[in-house]
Write a sequence for this structure.
């Protein structure tokens, strides 16, 4: 999933929600830039993967 896809997913999720300020949230999400570094690491196999959360 690329940043553009993730941003679209966020906006679509808010659109179908029943949050009273969803239009404000959607407008803010349209303004933001999302950037992340993709890694090939999967931590869900580790017993303590939630420790840093």
């Amino acid at each position: 999933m690329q940043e553009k896809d993730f941003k679209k997913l966020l906006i679509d999720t808010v659109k179908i929600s029943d949050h009273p300020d969803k239009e404000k949230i959607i407008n803010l999400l349209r303004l933001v830039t999302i950037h992340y570094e993709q890694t090939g690491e999967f931590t869900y196999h580790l017993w303590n993967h939630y420790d840093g959360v």
Q: What stands out?
A: The two ends are 22 Å apart (CA to CA). The chain has a mean pLDDT of 82.
